[in-house]
Amino acid sequence: MNVTAKTYQKGEIPGVIAIEASTCKGCDACKRHCPTGAITGMFGATHSINVDLCLSCGQCLINCPFGAPYETSDTVDEVIAKLKDPKVTVVGIIAPAVRVAIGEDFGLPVGSLVTGKLYGSMKKAGFEILDNNFTADLTIMEEGTEFISRARHAVFGEKNEHGGEIGPLPQFTSCCPAWVRLVETKYPTLIPNLSSAKSPQQMAGTVAKTYGTKVWKKSAENIYTVGIMPCTAKKLEASRPEFISAYEYNKKNHSAASKPYPDIDTVLTTRDLSRLLKKLKIDLAKEQEVEGGTLLADYSGAGTIFGNTGGVMEAAVRTAYAVITGEELQPLEFKKVRGLKGVKSASVTIKDSKYNKEVTLNLAVVHNISENIKPVIDEVLAGRSPYHFIEVMNCPGGCINGGGQPICGNGSSWLGAVRPWFAWA
Amino acid sequence: MQSEKMILKHPLNVRIFHYLLILSFLPLAVTGLILYFKPLSEASMNLTMQIHVVAGVVLTIDAIGFLLIGFDRVVLFTKRVFNISINDFKWFLVLGGYPQKILLKKKIAVPPMAKYNSGQKLFGVCVLIGGTVLIFSGWILWAFPHLVPRQTVALLGLLHTFFAWVLTLFLLVHLFLGVYMFDDFKAMILHGKIPYDESKEMSPLWVEKEIVPLSDKAA
Amino acid sequence: MENKKYQYIENPLHVTRREFITISGIVVAFLALPAVWIKTLTSANNNYIQARTKGLYQDDEKAAVRVSHANKSVTRYYKEFGDKPLGHLSEELLHTKYINRTKGIS
Q1: What gap in Å lies between CA A232 and CA A399, rounded to an integer?
Q2: CA-based nearest distance A166→chain C, Å
Q3: Is the pLDDT of residue C3 over 60?
Q4: Which of C42, C57, C69 sits opposite A323 (nearest CB)?
Q5: Does some domain include residue B49?
Q6: Which CATH class name applies to A139-156+164-196+302-401?
Q7: Which residue segment(s) compose the domain that B54 sits in?
Q8: What distance in Å separates the CA atoms of residue A53 and residue A47, rounded to the nearest whole number?
Q9: Which of A56, A121, A174, A195 is flagged as catalytic?
Q10: Predicted pLDDT of residue A255
């Protein structure tokens, strides 16, 4: 842990990822995957992570051939203790990307969709299920409405109902905590462009400890929320001290003063959850498929594609189109924003039914930000960006290839040209 | 000027290949050991790695160059080192008579050898296979560790370490015996020639079956 | 350095034509096969990303509801508790502010 870390608020986890010096061979492979050049150490010498530059994205971790980077935050045993505690209701908040990767840790083929077995395994372990795809749908409602409000303000001069400020275009998605941290540490002038919507994980934590108390009929103090994420940066996100919205709301409304509790108590990566299940001798591959159980596990197809690059954009377009035009998007598949190309763009010309005018929305999708984000940001900073709405995901391919996913030995995250990179200094 | 009869054992292209091997492999072995044990400071480890890489490039050019220019010698060498018989097994049982010669000053009977004795053939096999693996894996580890699948890079790293140790340790034996057998030392390092009578004793099968008198043809 | 005085050389015909071709073939194969092996592996190195991507699009295709605004549970959430998107309660619970962290970076 870096005691001189300067870009972290009190309570945040500085240095989610660290490098084991004795394992590191100084081969520089990690540096090529790092979006911020946060890895220090000359070629041939052991490397270490500058936590002030690090986004905690974990790309170095999943790509290092020798397994030198590791996570410094491991709460598997803490979660097991909570699962065994009869007074505590442990809520597992499952990200979309987890369900197509966790099977790999149990011998199933890469990419197997194992939602039902995952629910079954987690319920056997004692979790209540809150599917983050449900909150992804919620995020679309919030962020989509926000985008429509910003767009109608920019195009038609529409004002906010409560007279509040409306953010500028282009609007950037804000569900990727590595991307958010990149903006906060390197491009703070773009902060107003970030959607004010929380990430689905954080919305889920808040919902679980407010609305969720009615669903599970438990008090908020006894609900322990666990993010099950494909992402190491989510561990950092959950530790942000301002994310105690449920506690503040409950305090205001019930006057039962208690110690502050975070919206998300802890985060387990997909790998962490696999270890937890194995510790409890639960074999996911052999579990029967079960349903989620409550409305908080009810999700749409738009919510589940959040894990892919382009998925958030496609989900947003499906809803924004319907809200603006009053009709459903046909066909629902918005293929222009799918695929592994670094920057994908699409234009949608639709008739705004409220103002009876045609508008053209220019959309962009960026992933693998270490290779692709700079020109997009430079355009926005220069005021020359042609886009109105930009989805950004740090990881190549999106969250399905996140730093917390099962490590695929016969793969690499490199999406760039097949060219040599001659390390030297 | 020698008055004795001489055999051309190592033509010039072979010797040039070997000079470059010495110039590249010795730094590779030394820097390789440093990289393995990591005893130095950051800047020194970086310099070590840079030397290792440059020497590796020289080794690669030397190997590919000789493969192209001296392909017939490569084929000849390959044929020789993989030609194994019961004599090789018997040679190893007495370690070629070297410990006895060096430590006990005693000469013992040794099975008849061709151009390369059994130990040299084993070293030759290690160099052919190990050298190829080291060069191949070395390039991947230097230039492509970010895009070759990670378990493959890990495997190549393991193979690189394994063959590096094999060749480095075997090299010590090669260096010692290569100097100790002083006529052979002069043949490879200086002029390429070895006395006929010396060869008849150390490599009788070679002299009997492969050596022909130089006719009016110029060398 | 090179004293051209030597009387014997190696017989160049020691390797027969057949042997030469066989050994050449083995040498070339030994060198080419690793290159082919690496090329094959590397061209497949993004397959796992594509497999997982496909899995999620399949989850979408088989879903009964495929747009967020038609998710009845989301509607229920707003009706029973959340009020409406971008409303006051949403601002309080589901929206956030960000932090300028540049002061700390060297």
Answers
A1: 11
A2: 11
A3: no
A4: C69
A5: yes
A6: alpha beta
A7: 6-210
A8: 14
A9: A195
A10: 62
Residue-level pLDDT at C104 = 61
CATH number for the domain including B27?
Answer: 1.20.950.20
**Which pLDDT tens digit goes with each residue over B137-151?**
999 999 999 999 999
For residue B149, list chain A residues with Cβ-Cβ distance below 8 A.
Answer: 409-412
Catalytic, A128? Answer no
Predicted pLDDT at C6: 85
Q: How would DSSP label each residue in A281-325?
A: T--GGGPPP----SGGG---HHHHGGGSTTHHHHHHHHHHHHHHH
Record the pTM: 0.93
Q: How confident is the model at residue A62 (pLDDT cuts 50, 70, 90)?
A: very high
CA B178 to chain centre: 10
- Tens-digit pLDDT profile for residues A10-61: 999 999 999 999 999 999 999 999 999 999 999 999 999 999 999 999 999 9
pLDDT digits (tens, 9 = 90+) for A228-256: 999 999 999 999 999 999 999 999 987 66
Nearest to B149 among C20, C30, C41 (CB): C41
Q: Is the pLDDT of residue C103 over 90?
A: no
Residue A242 appears among annotated catalytic residues = yes
Q: Are strands B211-213 and C8-10 parallel, antiparallel or unpaired?
A: antiparallel
Q: Could you give phi then psi for residue B214, rounded to 5 degrees? A: -75, 125
Asked which of A206-210, A395-399, A408-412, A416-420 is least confident by mean pLDDT, the reply is: A416-420
Which residues have a Cβ under 8 Å from the Cβ of A212 and sit 6 or more positions away? A91, A130, A218, A223, A296
Q: In chain A, list all ranges with CATH 3.40.50.1780.
A: 76-134+199-300
Which of C81, C95, C103 is facing A196, going by the closest CB pair? C95
**Residue of C7, C13, C16, C37 to mutate for B, most B C-beta atoms under 10 A:** C7
List chain B residues with CB under 8 Å of A416: 147
Question: Could you give the residue range(s) of every CATH 3.30.70.20 domain in chain A?
Answer: 17-71
Please tell me the distance from the alpha carbon of residue A59 to that of residue A71, in angstroms, as a whole number.
12
Contact A96, A132 (CB under 8 A): yes
For B144-195, where are the alpha helices, taking DSSP H only? 150-180, 182-186
User: What dotted CATH number matches A76-134+199-300?
Assistant: 3.40.50.1780
A308 at the C interface (CB within 8 A)? yes
Domain count, chain B: 1
For B186-213, the pLDDT digits (tens) are 999 999 999 999 999 999 999 999 888 8
Cα torsion B7, B10, B11, B12 to 10°: value is -130
Amino acid making up residue A306:
F
Q: For the segment C45-93, what is each residue's pLDDT rounded down to a tens digit?
A: 999 999 999 999 999 999 999 999 999 999 999 999 999 999 999 999 9
Q: Which residue has the tokens 């937890």?
A: A276
Q: If you classify domain A17-71 with CATH, what class do you get?
A: alpha beta
In DSSP notation, B33-102 reads HHHHH--S-HHHHHHHHHHHHHHHHHHHHHHHHHHHHTHHHHHHHHHHHT---HHHHHHHHTGGGHHHHH
Instruction: Return the bridge partners of C93, or none.
Output: none
In chain A, what's the furthest Cα-to-Cα distance? 66
